[in-house]
Design brief:
Pfam families: DnaJ. The chain is built from 5 helices and no strands. By secondary structure, it is mainly α.
Length: 109
Amino acid sequence: MAIENPYDILGVPRNATKEEIEKAFKAAVKKHHPDNGGDEKLFNKVVVASLILRDDEKRKKYDEDGIYNEERPDTTHSLAMEQVAMFFINSIEALVANSQNLANYDLIQ
């Protein structure tokens, strides 16, 4: 499935590190999330772009031919929700593991 350039969507250069991609993803999610008044289509593009660039194999494949072959091309929305859910689950697990009070944190900083 051909998609828009994931580097452009996240606003990172082709040689961006995983840390830079993660930072750009978090900023874009915060900016474009529909619950914050953002555009759902753009939010979904952000999530798909991050799925490509945060996975070494998918990123390499995209860099080689500019194509992202998604096994289920009609599942963009569910992939987006899965990605957001994993972000929150990982954040909450890290806070709980460190005995942090969740009420004191904004997970979308």
